Amino acid sequence: MRRPIESTQYTSFTFTAHLLEARIDASVGTVGDALENALMESQIGLHKTELIKPRRPWHGLAGVELGTAEWVDWFNNHRLHSAIGDTPPHEYETNHYAQHQPQPAAGVNA
Q1: Do 47 and 14 fall into the same domain?
Q2: Does any domain span residue 109?
Q3: pTM
């Protein structure tokens, strides 16, 4: 059976949108949790696909914890991200904030 075009990671978004439209509060958690869950589920999927499954069998929790720390470092600091010009996310963010420093108001001395 083929999955519908709308994948399960967006189900939470759609569900939250329907709740908001109907002015219904979520029965569990706080408003907006469904959106956060979709992002987290997507991240967990990447973690499993890129780290957990390829490196099995794992020989204890310490190995998983160390592997996860290394993967997070790579993911944030070294991974080339095509949506931001094949730049690592940390480098892109650093450059962004360097170009967008708050400017002092005119006539105000720092």
Answers
A1: yes
A2: no
A3: 0.56
Asked if 77 and 88 touch (Cβ cutoff 8 Å), the reply is yes
- Is the distance from CB of 72 to CB of 82 less than 8 angstroms? no
Q: Which residue has the higher pLDDT, 30 or 45?
A: 45
56-96 pLDDT tens trace:
999 999 999 999 999 999 999 999 999 999 999 999 999 99
Give every CB contact of residue 36 below 8 A, 6+ residues apart in sequence.
Answer: none
Spatial contact of 46 and 79, defined as CB atoms under 8 Å apart: no
The backbone torsions φ and ψ at residue 87, rounded to the nearest 5 degrees and listed phi first, read -115, 145
Do 49 and 67 belong to one domain?
no
| CB contact at 8 A, 100 and 87 | no
For residue 84, the 8-state DSSP code is G
| Same domain for 73 and 49 | no
The residue out of 54, 70, 86 marking a domain boundary is: 54
